[in-house]
Design a protein that fits this description.
The chain is an alpha+beta fold. It has 13 helices and 9 strands. Helix 12 crosses helix 13. Its cofactor is FAD.
Length: 392
């Protein structure tokens, strides 16, 4: 992927926003377990950063997805993972299907305000019994008059305590599990919604995560995104951008942590020399830097394929898998070099150690990614093909 002047200017703008508007507040937001999503996203909307690859007709820039990847990479300069994740939900996880398949009326009512930063958005797919296995979700929507009436619950919903609407995947019929689901825009102030339960997480603590209960929640049928019964397919398409965004947003953060550790080990003296002078330490740092650069190359290659309109499903799954594993390897190794200081709660390394653990779980666990990759390689045992098909 060749970075143009426009790519570099976008990166510079986003990085400056991160340094000026996000990083000074990270410690406070981490402590409170929530970020001021409306305030932050409105500032980003004013800069045109929330609709980079969205249609110009609804306030977006209409650029190709390579610019979205550069945006995600620049967000990785945030000193916590939760805020880039919350922003990514708005830009790359909850809105792609609406932008592609929603009616003009629906896009004017919900997409345009999300791009402007006037509305905060959540993606509501996972349930307590249906995380990576999306096909198993139980939340239902029945038709009654001109409405859908929704009953069920959603779990681990990012931005869930403060979002204005959610892109929600529900069962709209009794048919086959891959053809009975639909994506519906659900206003979060609708009667029958309870989202008071804010979840206490190991990492990503700067973003709020909610459990949502829905009891006879009425939503107009015009809030359906695209065609009824196509929700599973639409969500799988959204997952591709989610996985690519997540991988891209990890690159600069891991690079910065490696650089911080180089400086720390250079200054820290032990047994008559700096830690960095130990061959094991500087060799290990070289290995970790190589792994991050390999992740970056894979992300850029996948972006090229995606922008060209070719099927990037396997590569996007590889990006997600690699990002999770590299993130765990890098943060674990660096924490060891920081010793007791690295074990302190507010250290950037310990925060990253907690935050990156989610990457191998959320948006499809490592095992799901391996199943998808195996299927697309043509090497999955026949008895498991149907399982991977559900997740790809």
């Amino acid at each position: 992927m060749i970075l143009t002047h426009e790519h570099k200017e976008l990166y510079r703008t986003v990085k400056k926003f991160v340094e000026d508007e996000l990083n000074p507040h990270v410690a406070e937001w981490e402590k409170e377990g929530i970020w001021p999503a409306h305030e932050v996203l409105k500032k980003m909307g004013n800069l045109g950063l929330l609709g980079i690859s969205k249609p110009e007709a609804y306030g977006g820039m209409g650029l190709d997805y390579s610019y979205e990847v550069v945006f995600a990479q620049a967000l990785g300069n945030c000193t916590c993972g939760g805020i880039p994740m919350g922003i990514g939900v708005q830009t790359d996880m909850a809105t792609p299907a609406l932008a592609r398949f929603g009616s003009d009326e629906l896009k004017k009512e919900y997409l345009a305000p999300a791009i402007a930063g006037d509305m905060v958005v959540s993606i509501a797919v996972s349930e307590a019994g249906a995380g990576s296995d999306v096909a198993s979700l139980k939340t239902t929507a029945r038709k009654e008059g001109g409405d859908y009436v929704i009953n069920g619950s959603k779990m681990w919903i990012t931005n869930g305590t403060q979002s204005d609407w959610a892109c929600m995947l529900v069962n709209t019929s009794e048919g086959k599990v891959h053809a009975n689901k639909s994506l519906i825009v659900v206003p979060m102030d609708a009667k029958g919604i309870d989202r008071k339960t804010k979840l206490d997480k190991l990492g990503m603590r700067g973003s709020d995560t909610a459990m949502i209960f829905l009891d006879e929640v009425r939503v107009p049928q015009r809030n359906l995104i695209g065609t009824e019964g196509m929700g599973f397919m639409y969500q799988m398409m959204q997952f591709q951008e989610e996985r690519l965004f997540g991988a891209a947003s990890g690159i600069d953060g891991l690079t910065n942590l490696i650089n911080e550790t180089i400086e720390y080990t250079r200054q820290r003296q032990a047994f008559g020399q700096s830690l960095l002078d130990n061959q094991y330490v500087h060799f290990r740092l070289a290995e970790l830097k190589t792994e991050v650069e390999a992740l970056k190359a894979l992300v850029y290659q996948t972006t090229e394929e995606y922008v060209a309109g070719r099927d990037a499903s396997m590569l996007a799954s590889m990006c997600k898998l690699k990002a999770g594993r590299v993130g765990r390897e890098v943060t674990d190794s660096l924490l060891q070099f920081w010793g007791g200081q690295g074990y302190m709660w507010d250290n950037n390394i310990s925060r990253a150690y907690r935050d990156t653990r989610l990457i191998s779980i959320g948006g499809g666990a490592d095992e799901i990614m391996l199943g998808i990759i195996s299927k697309l390689m043509g090497i999955l045992p026949s008895k498991r093909k149907h399982e991977a098909k559900k997740a790809s």
